[in-house]
Design a protein that fits this description.
homotetramer; about 375 residues; alpha/beta; TIM Barrel; eight-stranded parallel sheet; two-stranded antiparallel sheet; globular; metal ion binding (chains A, B, C, D)
């Protein structure tokens, strides 16, 4: 079994978000950090560091317009030179002044047109650089009961999704994300997986649901949703992060590592870890108070550790105990894998890949952090621009 | 407008649950009350009292086997004599010792067979007494991570649902209820509306989703689900009750009357109040510490008041403000209806229907409560038999 | 009774937050609105409009340094000319770059010194303008388990509070606010009322707890806390706002008007509405998408309506039903008040006070909104400066 | 360091609840298990098995009247013969019919008298068998707004607590437990740690707070409460169990093992693990679907594993990183301990104690389970008697 586990771990792929390298914060304060990228190019340089030391993070998701450049092909080439590639294109229809009352669900048709045009632009950018996935998250919703018609907004949403879907190339996908609340506080227009699922079902096979691990109501069993969407062949991607309360966007695995293990267990059970299964495993995080590059390295490692544990579950013993109704026995098999210290195994896997067994230390010793602090002086640091 | 409102209120139909008249409680204690029914016949007598004073609660839902009788036709006749009719048949596959690890999702095929047979029996009973709806709620789920396969349980669930669905008569419906947790504490097999919706979609037009207002995670926007399922033509019924924390099963409208108004607003907006729309409005409550008959009367009145307010919303003014993006204006139109005291209107409606304008006092003055305390001595009081 | 109710309503005082008139938003976007104040002076002009039409909002809370001016006495004089006065001084120790890892609980003593000095400055400002209350809310906390010592941070907090308390003048008070989360996501240093209470108890009589209605875990019964702190004579103030999920900071009374009524019921029961009781009733809200002045007017009216209903509760009938263990009867007395439409009563009260019975329309007709849009061109709009 | 860790683990003491060996369930169903004790004596026999294989569970908490016997001294002697002792006496004032509307907070003084008398009886029983702790949990509360006076109930509670406190012997303690909800659904009379703390503070040094890990609102940071109460010297005991949603009472460590580690970290940091610190570490669980004795063994082991990890935290390195504001470094030190597989260490500790390194297997191989199934035929199985 170990060989298969090692192979699976070597073959794992985790996508990094360009925006994790820029400044971020809360509505109360964005604390700027030294050495933060000023351009999409510098973000890619930083992301390349994460891949350099982990070996499993070879692509970088972009956020448009945060990562708007003149020439995306040039950016893709730059990424390639740095050992990485461009990943999912994330549309952003929440920061224009026109979007105060919604983007694609806005009561004003002109605003909806503008928003949908942006979605189409994202499809085009993705096509231009040969990227499969366009990810849609809408901040759309309402703050007050009665503010707008829930149903009318669904109709408008469906229309914009359809137009975007129709523009997809043969090998492209539309990934639809849901979120319980924030920034809308009474309703969001895609609040839960059921809503995203229903829309994707109507759109067709190229529309898939994204699970952001921070976007649920308290008490939601996320691995159930993972298992259910896998059964329905409607799970397209993850946005990994951690939360204690709301959409805290902390490092994945830092708040509830056992939950992350349970999620990866469902992935492994459904044989959905391998790339051909078509699940995109992305990070989507904020590093408000910790340095960004090592935080991304740590996050990648956390996903790796949860995955390694999930791969170690003895599926035969588990199935046997489950069939026999042996509640404690089945749980014991499951916990046995979780309680295993997989760090030595991962250190070995890294060495097999020609990497330092300790990515955090290797990065720290590289001097890169000091270098960017020294070099990136002046200019406008990247951030959300809220 | 007032005439239409009055007509709508006169035509409203709310179904009572037979089990609300029996004893109920928590795992800590069931406090028996005096005068509680000993038989399904006595439950129907009590339910008939609620209809007598409210005029809008003409049917009584049954729970099998709690309401098992030799001859359902005889029970239906008895109900008719008392001015009411039999309503939804509720299956119960959570109280047999065999169901400790699940009913239709149990790993043991023999247990699944037994559970499915009970569902089929419920379809038969419904057919025998000419009842349209069979409602399925499953306590099935797991308490511990790893205890059973989430996916295998979905497969088993789908199989049992399909067999039950196939047994439905032409005019019958299968109503599928979801619940976040309790009595299962790690996963339930139908935890949310998305799961119920997906199953109903595969089953076909005769399968519809039930919204129990107490079965959601904290923060869930229930009226969104109402609006969404109405748009998808997949909302079949409500189980009305109130909650502050979990599935508290308090009197509907007692914990958050504004939420109940918002739910009824979506119903009114979609013109789904009238009976032809096919939404069954049922109560599903426990009266652990308050007397049961007046608690049911109060609950019916709470639904009526929320409905009356929803009917008073000025839809034209609301739509205009919404179209103009007038956040405060739209909210004000909405709140204007909610803040109206509709009790005088409902008193008039009752008088138009030949009823006492004050059902609570009329019931209290009737002496019925004393009568059943005096008469129902001995025997085994009805309860959940947990 | 009505005379007493009217008198109580005429005597009610609600404090407005200066920051509600500036721009605000979420981490995703701050949508700037036209006509927004550029200076503390303009904020006071706007606040004065709210008082002008409601008659019960005669003071304006300041946030330092958002409302920093050269001469606070001059600002107080300006307020007086506009018919209002300065209210609670709110310290702000969450926006300096030094506070990334905490202010008064920061591991670095120099940062703690700086933060405490700011608190002392706020006490001085309050003293200078004759304001009783200094309100402290700390964004301090940690994002990751292990990040800092929970206990050491309590020690540091206690030290800073003590130093601030010692600087209070005879008639001054320190108001300590608690908050479950945001912007800190693993622990906050004052997460709940118990923590605030324990600190205030040690400090002494001039330290009191602030209840912000949006700062609790889901399911928290806020009116219980109100009743408990009143019993302990440790309730100093409210920060009123509404929430559906987290600290949404919506208009008070807009998400759960019944909860607001229940809170005001505890206030009325304890005879704590009158000003001599020393409870400061403040608004603390964001108007991210709605116009700010009418939103404040609506919020004041919502508090008035909840108060009027609370004043209408028949305390004798309630106590009688409670003593008799009449669950439904007691609840009915309570709901009878809540279900009353108090808007006509409040319209009359306003007329008695020489005000327009309809503050929203009166404001709208005044032309003030157009005036400030026209006049306030150029300059830097006020906001949180996050 | 390892020697100290081993010594600490050998010296750890975990108390078992007698009721965990009886039947339990939800309001929907109690599934009876074979071999379940019929008497307090048989419960003690079962508890002794748990201690026999773990070596760290030498006391058994009793619940009065569930464990009512003629002669408690005789019961204590029986326990001693079986290698264990009697532990905390738990009062039960929630199952008499008189307590429907509350016990010590009931509006009826006669009911309050009866309830307080029971508390006094528990103090006497504890004194009779030389037990230090009497633990009070009240199911008291209300289901409906207005049902009773929140404040009057606090007055009544304070009175009963005072009378009970006054009856304590010199070395006895009153442990006060809090709970957010269930079985009361609108308010409980001791909903949170702040309420319990305030009452204990007034009572005096012999009154301490109990933290039941399942009794909090979603999102509550329990280890903060642990650290805070330790700082205030007001933490008396734990009721350990796990929850995903409400008070699920699952095996401790099964839902969120990382949380249990964080709790034990605060205990270790405050040097409160050793018995002289006076913290009682009790289990309080239901085993609704799993066999009870091995579930208790597993629970004890889960606490041991969390404790071992907490003991392995490198406090010097942690403090250094915290002082330097090294967010990632401090978290890494913390996680390093958590990610360690401590099962080999605990196996060694058990061998040092003369125990089998694998308690679960040792118990299973003992044949005890079969023996009790065969022997315990007839009689009334123990349960909650709800």
């Amino acid at each position: 079994m170990t060989d298969a586990v090692r192979a699976a771990l070597r073959g794992q792929r985790i996508e990094l978000p360009s925006w994790a390298f820029g400044n971020s914060g809360t509505r109360f304060k964005v604390f700027a950090q030294q050495g933060v990228p000023r351009t999409p190019y510098e973000k890619i340089e930083d992301a390349a560091q994460v891949h350099r030391y982990t070996g499993v993070a070879p692509t970088v998701a972009l956020h448009i317009p945060w990562d708007k450049v003149e020439d995306y092909t040039h950016l893709a080439g730059f990424a390639k030179e740095h050992g990485v590639g461009l990943g999912t294109i994330n549309a952003n229809v929440f920061q224009d002044n026109d979007y105060m009352l919604g983007s694609v669900t806005n009561p004003d048709p002109a605003v909806r047109r503008k928003a949908t045009d942006h979605l189409l632009e994202c499809v085009e950018i993705a096509a231009a650089v040969g990227v499969r996935d366009v990810k849609l998250w809408f901040s759309d919703g309402t703050n007050y009961p009665g503010q707008d018609s829930i149903r009318a907004r669904q109709d408008r949403l469906a229309e914009a999704l359809q137009e975007t879907y129709d523009a997809l190339g043969e090998d492209q996908r539309l990934l639809l994300e849901y979120k319980l609340f924030e920034p809308a506080f009474y309703t969001t227009d895609v609040p839960d997986w059921g809503t995203a699922y229903a829309h994707c079902l109507r759109l067709g096979d190229k529309a898939q649901v994204v699970i952001d691990t921070g976007h649920h109501a308290p008490g939601t069993n996320i691995e159930f949703i993972v298992a259910f969407l896998l059964r329905e062949a409607k799970l397209g991607a993850f946005d990994f992060n951690s939360r204690f309360y709301a959409d805290d966007d902390l490092m994945v695995g830092s708040a509830d590592p056992f939950q992350l293990f349970r999620i990866m267990h469902e992935i492994v059970l459904a044989d959905a870890l391998r790339q051909e299964a078509g699940i995109a495993f992305m990070l989507d995080q904020c590093h408000n108070i910790e340095p960004k590059i090592p935080a991304q390295i740590r996050s990648v490692m956390n996903v790796q550790e949860a995955t390694a544990k999930a791969l170690l579950v003895d599926h035969d013993a588990l199935a046997k105990a489950q069939d026999e109704g042996d509640v404690l026995g089945a749980n014991a098999v499951f916990m046995d894998a979780y309680n295993t210290d997989v760090r030595p195994l991962l250190a070995e896997v890294r060495q097999e890949m020609g990497l330092d067994p300790d990515p955090v230390t290797a990065y720290r010793d590289s001097g890169y952090a000091d270098k960017i602090v020294a070099e990136r002086v002046g200019g406008q640091q990247a951030g959300w621009g809220a």
